[in-house]
User: Fold this.
Amino acid sequence: MKIIKNSTILSQEYIPEDIIGREEQIARLRGLIRTNEGSSSFVIRGNPGTGKTLIGKYLLREMKGYNGIYVNCYVNQTDRSIISSILSDPNIRLPELGNARSESLSSILFKELPDSKNLIVLDEAQSLKRSHGQIVYMLSRSKELGGPEIKLMLLSMEEPEMYLDKSTLSGLGKYNRISLKEYDAEDLHEILARRANSGLYEGTFTDSAIARISELVEESGSARIAIELLRNSAIYAESRNVFLDEEAVLQAYRDFSPPLEDSSLINLDEDEILLLKSLLESTRLVSGFKTSDLKKMNTGMNDARMYKFLKTIELSGLVKKSKIGKGYSGGVENEYILRISPNILLSKLNMIGKFSGPSEKGSMD
Ligand SMILES: Nc1ncnc2c1ncn2[C@@H]1O[C@H](COP(=O)(O)OP(=O)(O)OP(=O)(O)O)[C@@H](O)[C@H]1O
Ligand SMILES: [Mg+2]
Assistant:
């Protein structure tokens, strides 16, 4: 039985016509972009799967008359590569790295952009903390620096204090911040129902299957995970020649591990990466660990940092938490199940160092 009518609609990259539960934020951003004079910057913060990229791309598509540009800062981590990505014209040559002072980079950029109505979205902006670059300063102060009018939108999992320096931060207006809450089961249900109605054949899925998916992923509050489980359930049902009902969802859920973005590791600081590595290398660890296992490791981290570490790996989708009650004297004992094979995760962690690349500090004064 064919269930999937349009697989594009079930993909993560798809930009739907209606965005559920974010109407207010979109209206506010639209207003801010249109009414603010000159250059201005907006910050959208939210956990994985809360719709940051979607809102950014939706506005780029919707704001006709703007020169819209999207850059993923996880892929482009240095000022140079962000600028060449903005310019994206292979005929524009940036000066060689050695003599690329900020003046020359910014003047090339400013010269190529139209004088007004530039809308630049920097996604995964938390990645910028690795590069120590000046790009955000340059873009957000473009007018003062003699450049064109730029509306800058930063999307990130972290508060801007975590990845911007003081001088850049001070240019951010107090009212230009938007924080996205995780979706509740009702939002997720609505998001999934719309995807299913347009992406699947009518009569091949039940509403209780959709409701079940929303319940299963509610804890994460992530539309990304919800859509991925919908897609997996549809593929499962199609391959078994059955309806997409609750049973199919539960079967698909058993083999389900949410999509892991490379960027989910970016939120870990160096100590946390080391800790995660030693957890993974510890021979006892087969598929997960408990809070007390972590405590026993003598990490030198205090409780607050330990908690932040656990929260970070959970929100990134690296582990799934399940409570197993009061265990040790320090508080509630949780069990963390790895959602990705330890070997794959280890190899990804070992790659991280290679991404940071040489710092651009010094060339940007
Ligand atoms: N409000 C919504 N309505 C409809 N679809 C949504 C909504 N929010 C998110 N989605 C869908 O969920 C998926 C994940 O959303 P998105 O990529 O925007 O999350 P994100 O906040 O950028 O996450 P990450 O931090 O992992 O990059 C996408 O397929 C997106 O289309
Ligand atoms: Mg995103």
